[in-house]
Design goal:
The protein is an alpha/beta fold and 321 residues long. It folds into two domains: 1-44 and 112-176 and 277-321, FAD/NAD(P)-binding domain, CATH 3.50.50.60; 58-111 and 178-276, Polyamine Oxidase, Chain A, domain 2 (Alpha-Beta Complex). It contains eight helices and 18 strands. It has helices spanning 14-25, 69-77, 113-119, 156-162, 214-218, 231-236, 245-256, 302-318, and strands spanning 7-10, 30-33, 45-48, 51-54, 82-92, 95-107, 124-126, 134-135, 141-142, 145-146, 149-152, 178-187, 199-202, 208-213, 224-229, 264-275, 284-286, 289-291. The strands form four sheets. The protein has a seven-stranded mixed beta sheet with strand order 6-5-13-14-15-12-16. The longest helix is centred in the C-terminal third of the chain and has 17 residues, at 302-318. 50% of the residues are buried. It binds flavin-adenine dinucleotide. Flavin-adenine dinucleotide (FAD) is lined by residues 10-16, 33-36, 41-43, 56-60, 130-131, 153-155, 158, 162, 181, 183, 228, 270, 273-274, 293-294, 300-302, 305. Flavin-adenine dinucleotide binds next to helix 1, helix 4, strand 12, strand 16 and helix 8.
Length: 321
């Protein structure tokens, strides 16, 4: 049970943890509830064949001068994050065409989730706690327990399930505008793709839109790729993601010109991978209930989710009591 003097954050992805961190650092009592067995949400992955594999976000970026920059610099200093690359391949369904350069991407030796766990150090976190109802009538509540404020740091379709559809805050949600993705990890006998691949943006493939070299981004050189499906392929196979794996494997082999089949594969379903229309505003609050995450502070990405959560936590801590 939460004390009415504490704020409850629902969702222990990077937005929820950034929000809780901002509140706790300003002396506000806060508790984080997440339904998962571990923190991290869409920065999650799994240990596969003895090593962590990122199955959600592939990397993170940070804009110059961003308030997120010192946080990332701290992770790099402590060896939790590592500069990975600024250059990826661009490919069509039948092969690599060219390279493209952009911002520096950071990877992690221990998986991106490890950064969220680090940020949560010292916070009051309860895992395996699925919240079913968040109310605003006569003050904010979480499953009937009163709270000083409630933050929903979850994708809009998941927030919509918790709120009274007629409430002011539910009116700020855009649950229909979220797309699914399937992430497929492929383990090979050896590294048979170009050493400087890093990753490939794939256009015009019905099956795959991105391939990451997981051994390269992690720094251990393991012969493991992670492919992200197109939203259309994911939508077709949400009930049985395993059935999409042959199409993803065939597409990856054609793009990279690989002769052999992978020795193993693993598929992960992200029913709400990304918002198609993230809002520019950093967050929303009404009746003591706040919304944050990568559906805010567009464009949707790890940095935006952190910025949204940090901004909401700061605003809640600074509001007059
Ligand atoms: C396949 C994929 C690839 C991506 N690639 C990149 C990339 O390369 N670079 C990048 O910057 N971004 C990328 N992203 C986006 C990035 O992962 C997200 O922007 C960011 O992780 C969102 O964080 P969040 O805290 O807003 O939400 P989430 O990480 O989704 O956190 C929400 C949390 O809420 C919990 N939750 C949900 N409902 C409940 C409930 N009822 N009760 C309790 N807990 C609940 C969930 O368990 C979860 O932990 C990618 C995302 C996906 C899915």
């Amino acid at each position: 049970m939460s004390s009415p003097s504490s704020t409850v954050v629902v969702g222990g992805g990077i937005a929820g943890i950034a929000c809780a961190r901002a509140l706790a650092d300003r002396g506000s009592a806060v508790r984080v509830l997440d339904r998962g067995r571990r923190l991290g949400g869409r920065m999650g992955g799994r240990t596969l064949h003895g090593r962590p594999v990122d199955l959600g976000a592939s990397y993170l970026t940070v804009a110059e001068g961003s308030p997120f920059a010192p946080v990332v610099a701290g992770w790099v200093d402590r060896g939790l994050a590592r500069p990975w690359t600024d250059t990826f391949a661009v490919a069509g369904p039948d092969g690599i065409e060219r390279t493209t350069s952009g911002p520096l991407r950071y990877g992690t030796p221990g998986g991106l989730r490890s950064l969220v766990t680090d940020l949560a150090g010292g916070l009051d976190v309860q895992l395996e706690r699925a919240v079913t109802r968040v109310g605003g009538d006569g003050g904010p509540t979480v499953d009937g327990d009163p709270a000083a404020a409630v933050v929903l740091a979850v994708p809009d379709p998941q927030a919509a399930r918790l709120l009274d559809p007629g409430s002011a805050i539910a009116g700020r949600l855009r649950p229909a505008a979220w797309q699914p993705t399937l992430a497929v990890a492929l383990g090979f006998a050896g590294r048979r793709w170009p050493a400087d691949l890093h990753g490939a943006f794939v256009h015009d493939s019905p099956a795959v839109e991105w391939i990451a070299d997981d051994g390269d981004r992690r720094g251990d050189g393991a012969p493991v790729l992670v492919a992200h499906s197109t939203p259309a392929l994911a939508a077709e196979h949400l009930d049985d993601p395993e059935r999409a794996v042959p199409a993803v494997v065939a597409a990856v082999r054609a793009v990279l010109g690989l002769d052999g089949e992978p020795e193993w594969t693993h598929v992960h379903r992200w029913s709400f991978a990304k918002p198609t229309a993230p809002r520019e505003e950093p967050f929303a609050v009404a009746d003591g209930i706040g919304l944050c995450g990568d559906g805010w502070s567009a464009p949707s990405k790890v940095e935006s989710a952190w910025r949204s959560g940090d901004a909401l936590g700061t605003a809640l801590a600074d509001r007059p009591s």
